[in-house]
């Protein structure tokens, strides 16, 4: 009884801290404000170059002649694997159940400005990436905060991020995702969570043994499949409810600026609540500004940081503008959004069932949750490993992989209210140092982005042309396999 009381008290304390970190006076305005500042400084790069970025990432797939461990497409799908998750299903439902249909509009806003943040952190991840003693490329906020921001501030921000990322990888990236897989399989197919735990232990362990190349190979085939299944079901629902789509958009836009009146099980919300829920759940869904996706982007084969930054930017577009929109429209058009906040966990399943029938609708949502959660496990394992390596050294990688695989079993077989609270807090603590760094380095990002896009506006320059550009601009940023892991690019260039 004392242990339960202590756990409950700890959960309340962590919940209070997390509520402040993710509240309207700290992280939400900082995340949105950073995205807005970068959007302005980069002259709306997410709007100007979205078409070229989608073509380069999804059709070209590989940047011929570029250095890296995995292709640009694999880096994109690895980041999508970690980002497109339970938040795209339950998170959207939670936002609508509390804030009403207008919350979806503000989720779109966070996605659009968040694309600039995602571009910036991926750009920096490649720009300041390093090569370890085994020849593997490593990068992310744990690198670019230290090497891009000179002095004690940069080192402090880098270490703060790395420690928070390792902690978060076991929370939102492991325990909660494994639990979602186990619950989904139990509810839909009545599979014992202990059996799921064994499956996850073997499956995750097998993939992690191969490192980022193995993760990239699995996610490059896995992620498109899971998104297509989920979107395919949603499209069928929207076709069957096509008559309700115009009214749904009307509610979304009108309620975004007026709040939502009480109806059904919905208790009503002010415009402040609508905006807060839209911002919080949108940011939580696409992770723009958190710095996590920069870790995967850093491993990509690319001939220039701008090219990978633009590819990574499309991740937020796919996550928020496509997947989140599908979830939101299905919930609003089927009329289940007003069931009440206590029904948020099953709201998306009910919406799909309304259009596809109870069996097929519920099954698609349950299977999607399993796919999304499993892919998130793989993506976050890499994020956590790279940051563990930064904190403890190269020797930590195999130990981290074994520990991460074992914790999956705990997540699949345990109730995790405390883990969810802890994970939310760790995610917020990750974002803080990264956002500060993005603002400090925004001038460098804008300057080098403009220079490259003036040279190659369509991302179709040959490797030889890019090489000559790098020479002419005096900025040979590439990693050198022969240098030590902690030497920044600028220091190496000076040698």
UniProtKB/TrEMBL annotation:
NCBIfam families tied to this protein: agcS (TIGR00835)
InterPro entries, A to Z: Na/Ala_symport (IPR001463)
GO CC, alphabetical: plasma membrane
Entry's transmembrane regions: 20-40, 79-99, 105-126, 156-175, 195-215, 222-243, 263-284, 317-340, 360-383, 395-413, 425-446
Superkingdom assignment: Bacteria
Compartments where found: Cell membrane
The UniProt record lists the keyword Chaperone: no
Annotated Pfam families: Na_Ala_symp
Keywords linked to the UniProt accession: Cell membrane, Membrane, Symport, Transmembrane, Transmembrane helix, Transport
The protein's name: Putative sodium/alanine symporter family protein
Gene Ontology molecular functions: amino acid:sodium symporter activity
